[in-house]
Amino acid sequence: MATATAATPAVSRRVVAAEGAPVKRLSLSDVQQGSRKLPSRLVIHGQAKVGKTSMAAYCDKPIFVISPGETGLHTLIDSGIVPNIPNIEIPDFDSLMQFIGELTTTEHSYKNVVFDTLDGFEKEANRKHCTEFYKGDWSESGFLGYQRGFRSVASGPWRELLAALDRLRETKRVGIILLAHTGVANQRRPIGTDFHRYTPAMAKEAWELTFGWSDICLFAEPVVVATKEKGDRVPKGHGGNTRVLHTEWEAAFDAGNRHGLPSEIDMGGNGKEAWDNFLSAVKSSRQIVKQEKTP
Q1: pLDDT tens readout for residues 105-125
Q2: Which of 199, 191, 180, 183 is nearest to 251 (CA)?
Q3: Whether residue 242 has pLDDT greater than 90
Q4: Could you tell me the pLDDT band of residue 294, with boundaries at 50, 70 and 90?
Q5: Residue 48's domain is classified under what CATH number?
Q6: Average pLDDT across the chain, whole number
Q7: Into how many domains does the chain fold?
Q8: How much of the chain is helix, strand and coil, in % rounded to 5?
Q9: Apex CA 51: angle with CA 50 and CA 56, to 5°?
């Protein structure tokens, strides 16, 4: 901010933004009723090859923003399983933020921006943060000590990333779709017995922030039934051909939505069916809500 002179009176810091632009004072006339009708912030997580990428490929006018080394979309395109979709591979976290800014400020026709994968980009955020603040030290005396690196990434660059995605969504009115790989981790409980659950392959600090930020979080899973028949020493798994999207939180995984979706959505036999079934569930839920509100 320039130094005030006799010709240029000082402006109170209380009404000046960080960039130097005057801040509008809010009043009751600024209160609005209803929503801004923005596209949803969608997260889909699940184990590798469960169909996350092929499902997102059939959203309306997508562009895929791909983390380093992620080849799933390219393989699906080469195999003819999904259309030839616009995509770009991002080399690092700074480039990711720069490209999100480009999408926010430049005219384009994309309706959905798909980030594949969330955990891949988190690794880049961790790498950047470790280099800048811990001199590349990944040991217990550096980034990994007391989990401080993961906490500072979540409160710093990861929060900035989510804010940038919100600006993109609000400015261009595009849907934001984040895809994440899922693994199995031990859930420690303050009271009761610990147990295993599915959790995205990223630090819990960044994931918890993302989960709370999302409007819809889907957990994609093949349906497997374990049975133990006579003579079996241990139960055997059966099935796996049917895949479903879970929309509500359970002890075994994170999921949730703000649309009144059914607890499970059938993914069908391919990516297009999975996306169409998801859209159909969203539309049906909206219709049910409207009917419930009608006197």
Answers
A1: 999 999 999 999 999 999 999
A2: 199
A3: no
A4: low
A5: 3.40.50.300
A6: 86
A7: 1
A8: 35, 25, 40
A9: 150
Mean pLDDT on 3-15: 39
Give a yes or no: residue 190 inside a domain.
yes
Q: Does residue 244 lie within any of the structural domains? A: no
Residues in Cβ contact with 95 at an 8 Å cutoff, skipping those fewer than 6 apart = none
Strand partners for 257? 216
Which CB contacts under 8 angstroms, 24+ apart, belong to 221-225?
A: 221/46, 221/47, 221/50, 221/246, 221/253, 222/50
Residues listed for the chain: 295
Q: Is residue 151 part of a domain?
A: yes
Nearest residue to 116 via CA among 75, 166, 163: 75
Query: Do 139 and 111 meet the contact criterion of CB atoms below 8 Å apart?
Result: no
3-state SS class at 131? helix
Residue ranges making up the domain that contains 170: 37-221
pLDDT of 174 higher than 60: yes
Q: Residues 237-246, buried b or exposed e (16+ Cβ, 10 A)?
A: eeeeeebbbb
The residue type found at 112 is N
β-pair partners for 16: 22
DSSP state of 2: P
The structure tokens listed for 110 are 């994309």
Q: Is residue 278 part of a domain?
A: no
Q: Is the pLDDT of residue 90 over 50?
A: yes
pLDDT of residue 68: 97
Contacts of 87 (CB under 8 A, 6+ apart): 63, 64, 65, 66, 73, 74
Q: Closest by alpha carbon to 54, among 86, 80, 81, 88?
A: 81
Tell me: the pLDDT tens digits for 53-78?
Answer: 999 999 999 999 999 999 999 999 99
Answer whether residue 225 shows pLDDT above 50.
no
Closest CA relative to residue 56, chosen from 102, 12, 118, 2: 118
Mean pLDDT of 89-104: 98
pLDDT at 24: 79
